[in-house]
Specification:
2 domains, signal, 496 residues, 6-stranded mixed beta sheet, 22 strands, Bact_Sporulation_Assoc, alpha/beta, Aminopeptidase, single chain
Length: 496
């Protein structure tokens, strides 16, 4: 969990003041072009103003691009894409701009035709082609062009989603990338392993990508897998402890962008994670939270990765696990008044908080999502099991008299007192303002769920069910949404 409080020590009338730090939103930079060729060019501009050597691959030849990245890294050469039959205009101009003298084409003529090679030669550039009759042979030939190493990366040659995150690691360490099928080790790959003196291998992907029969034929293999492409990328970053001071973010379905982005990440000594382009994936959120990542480079324009994802990355709540506890449930109705059951009000507001936090990129976890009862101890245990960063219990207030009214937020000083108080202070004024209720302030109380939760914890009393005016608001969806928005906004503000 991030550190949110810094201590500012100063003498003022003999007192020592403790002042919370103001954390800014995360940093997000976007690099992209109008198409795959232009995106590769824009990425190359982040590194190169000139380059004597460039590596060119077919814009849809993903296996060639994957195997080419470690070679391009060793050659200190930008990775550029082209059409199959004609040199892409953007790439042609970029080669001129770079004053390139030598081009290495990776891939056979089905991927990059001889016409393209000749067009490059006509620019006064020397051309060398590394290509085989298959993706396996091409990768093996690329490996031979690289400096000697005893380790290789093994990928399924048809499962491109497994590749982007490992490409950065392979490039930085000088490891060739070789391909196989899920159930058979191709002869070109087996020969490359032998001839290059490969003594150990990293197999990327689960058994659906490369089964155990193939795995056991490889020298000293270790496997990195995940339940999907997003989790796999996150697991690669986690298991290999890759740098995360400026994580690059690619679309897990746009392989041309994510592979080129992986090369930029390698050049920047950074890692790459994946999302679906429309919403930040759970795997990405988890690694962001666990590594406290706050700086990102998004690969591709808005058409590749939506602004929604960029905004989630900017939000300081991204990747934080927020435990939302709707009070009461089932046989425990909580307070009753003015035609309302507290348990129903709590759950409605909590679901809205959950939706809003999820949309902001957090990892919300609810103690209950339906009319179920859990003991106070069970709620505390659930939050601990979820490794929650914050605990927010949602309630509605009540009194024997119908007069008391307004909103208030509680914290307990047993654990995380300073941070709990700060969270309460961020939520409370927003709650009263949004609901238009009396601001009853931030208070302390030893409520079980906030006393025994070891993470920063608050208990929010949205309004009084037993007061007619407050209850009239708790009956309306618009006000329940305003309450949820206040809790959401207060939580985000806590991280700023």
């Amino acid at each position: 969990m991030r550190s949110y409080i810094k201590v500012l020590t100063m003498c003022f009338l003999g007192l020592i003041l403790f002042v919370p730090s103001a954390l800014a939103d995360n940093s997000v930079k976007r690099v992209g072009g109008d198409n795959r060729y232009d995106t590769a060019i824009q990425l190359s501009k982040q590194i190169y103003s000139t380059a004597s050597t460039a590596v060119v691959v077919g814009g849809s030849a993903y296996p060639d691009a994957i195997s080419a990245v470690p070679l391009a890294y060793q050659k200190n050469a930008p990775l550029l894409y082209t059409n199959t039959k004609k040199l892409s205009g953007e790439t042609k101009n970029r080669l001129k701009e770079l004053h390139t003298k030598n081009v290495i084409i990776v891939g056979g003529t089905p991927a990059v035709s001889e016409n393209v090679a000749n067009q490059i030669k006509n620019l006064g550039i020397s051309v060398k082609r590394i290509g085989g009759s298959s993706r396996y042979e091409t990768a093996a030939k690329v490996a031979k062009e690289m400096k000697s190493t005893s380790k290789a990366i093994i990928l399924n040659g048809f499962v491109y989603a497994d590749a982007p995150a490992i490409v950065t690691y392979a490039a930085r360490n000088g490891y060739p990338i070789l391909f196989t099928r899920e159930s058979s080790l191709k002869s070109a790959t087996a020969e490359a392993i032998k001839s290059n003196g490969i003594k150990s291998t990293i197999v990327v992907g689960g058994t659906a990508s490369i089964n155990n029969t193939v795995y056991n034929k490889l020298p000293s293999p270790t496997r990195i897998s995940g339940s999907n492409r997003y989790e796999l990328a996150a697991n690669i970053v986690q298991k290999l402890n890759l740098p995360t001071s400026n994580v690059h973010v690619g679309n897990g379905w746009l392989y041309h962008d994510s592979i080129a982005g992986a090369y930029l990440a390698a050049r920047n000594n950074q890692s790459l994670i994946l999302t679906n382009g429309k919403n930040l994936s759970v795997g990405a959120r988890k690694i962001i939270g666990s590594k406290n990542i706050s700086k990102f480079t998004v690969v591709g324009k808005e058409g590749a990765i939506k602004d929604k994802v960029a905004n989630q990355l900017k939000n300081p709540v991204v990747g934080e696990t927020i435990f939302i506890d709707p009070g009461h449930g089932d046989q425990d109705s909580g307070a009753i008044g003015n035609g309302l059951l507290e348990k129903e009000v709590n759950l409605d507001i909590a679901k809205r908080v959950n939706t809003k936090l999820d949309a902001s990129g957090a990892l919300p976890v609810m103690s209950r999502s339906n009319d179920t009862f859990y003991s106070l101890q069970e709620r505390v245990n659930k939050a601990a099991s979820a490794q929650a960063d914050l605990f927010i219990s949602i309630h509605a207030n009540a009194n024997d008299s119908s007069s008391p009214n307004g909103s208030e937020t509680y914290y307990d000083a047993t654990y995380q007192a300073t941070n709990s108080k700060r969270l309460a202070e961020q939520i409370q004024p927003k709650l009263a303002t949004n609901l238009g209720t009396r601001d009853r302030g931030v208070k302390t109380a030893a409520f079980y769920v906030i006393k025994y939760s070891k993470m920063p914890s608050v208990l929010v009393e949205t309004a009084f069910i037993t007061n007619a005016s407050d209850a009239s608001k708790l009956k309306q969806a618009v006000y329940k949404d305003k309450a949820a928005q206040a809790i959401h906004d207060g939580t985000v503000s806590y991280y700023r």
